[in-house]
Amino acid sequence: MSATDPSRGSAQQMRQKAQEMEQAAQRASDPQERQRLQDKARKLREQSEQQGGPSEGLDPMV
Predict the structure, then answer these.
(1) What distance lies between CA 5 and its chain's CA centroid?
(2) pLDDT-based confidence at 62, cuts 50/70/90?
(3) How far apart are CA 16 and CA 19, in angstroms?
(4) What is the C-alpha to C-alpha distance for residues 35 and 25, in angstroms, rounded to an integer?
């Protein structure tokens, strides 16, 4: 992350948050909560890709 490109840092933070939500979804015992977290993670990942290009090092959800 460079100081000259703040949007890249923001996108990276969103991808990190999306990954954390995915992990939380995997641990969730309630199916509705799991789905909610997965949806939110997907939306964050999509937003991060719009801001900073494709995700780096994260597996895309298929």
Answers:
(1) 19
(2) very low
(3) 5
(4) 7
